[in-house]
Structure to design on (120 residues):
């Protein structure tokens, strides 16, 4: 398997949104340069996850700058973005005739890896 030059990564865990909704936005920014990805996220209609992914991309950029201070941020692109299902919070709601209804609150884990591409 080919070895990739991963510059940095960032992870956010236990995000209170379903992984299916999160993957819709993550697919938009996969394999894009970080500047282009931030623009897409800024104008996306899914505001909650877009704001979270924007913060995650900025965190990965900051991690890359700390790791290599002379790095050109314009050459970074999103190599991998993975959205995994996290634990589901289970809650109960009172129902008629002494019954209860289960409420499931899904969570997600998001991992992003940045790579440097020379010669744009």
């Amino acid at each position: 398997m080919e070895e990739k030059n991963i510059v940095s990564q960032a992870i956010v865990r236990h995000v209170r949104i379903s992984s299916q909704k999160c993957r819709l936005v993550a697919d938009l920014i996969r394999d894009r340069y970080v500047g282009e990805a931030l623009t897409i996220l800024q104008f996306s209609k899914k505001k909650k996850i877009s704001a979270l992914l924007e913060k995650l991309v900025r965190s990965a950029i900051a991690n890359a700058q700390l790791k290599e201070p002379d790095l050109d941020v314009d050459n970074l692109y999103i190599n991998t973005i993975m959205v995994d299902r996290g634990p589901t919070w289970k809650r109960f709601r009172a129902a008629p005739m002494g019954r209860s209804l289960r409420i499931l609150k899904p969570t997600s884990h998001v991992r992003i890896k940045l790579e440097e591409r020379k010669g744009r």
Notes: The chain has one domain: 6-116. The CA atoms of residues 84 and 109 lie 5 Å apart. The radius of gyration is 18 Å. The mean pLDDT is 93.
